[in-house]
């Protein structure tokens, strides 16, 4: 007869088994629901025997450790498939929107298509692929028109990236006079590359725009400061407003330039190539702007100094006038000499 201790151990073991069964069933039901949702999103139906068993009668599923491990693998596989199909659907929609834009597809058609092709299920992805193929066919049928649109789009992107003539001429296909699929495909790639370059460096371009605004404002205010008439036109506290704006520029422009230079240096170190701005290294361009500004200020100060000391600055116009005056004076003197000579001759004749 088993001892009391053994009976107690058996009873405890049975309780553990019961608790394990309850826990495993709860886990199974939770994961079964997850599988059903994943399959619904994917637009898939179970094919493998194990998958069918998972979706079948819960009471028929054996709650063994190996089955639960296999169930976990199934969920992982479906999750990976979900991510793949999401990415595929997103890429197809991006491609489709680009084709629709270039082909100028009617807005109502686009809205209807989008509203009926939601999600990333198997059927939706297939429909997206079919629509992309249809648009690709239309693109080839209107190849000349499409190439011209690509050229316009590429030129706009070059403008946004501040590409100079030298950078643009590197894309030889842009200047091709041929209209064929090769030209179209290469231009399409160039457009995608330009978009990627702009988007990858969009923070730099935002800083460039901000700096240009501050720089142009600073130059305009300096020109206004050199205008004496503004002192007599100080209506509505204009001079006070200018002073406030000047202080803002003095604070913001150095900050923006520091941040821009830091990002440019990071880019050049990371990419191991120069960041150009209209065919010139952007950092060099900014330094050259400051050098030219200092030089212009120095010339302006020298001009003012000469005016204040009574020495008129020599210009081509004043130099020409001086020459004319000298020539005129010489001519008058020569005329007087000739006249005196003639009078003298007349006296001698008498």
From TrEMBL:
The keyword Coiled coil applies. Residues 61-95, 239-303 form a coiled coil. GO terms for molecular function: microtubule binding. It comes from the Eukaryota. InterPro entries: MAP65_Ase1_PRC1 (IPR007145). Keywords: Coiled coil. This is Protein regulator of cytokinesis 1. GO terms for biological process: mitotic spindle midzone assembly. The keyword Membrane does not apply. One of its GO terms (cellular component) is mitotic spindle midzone.
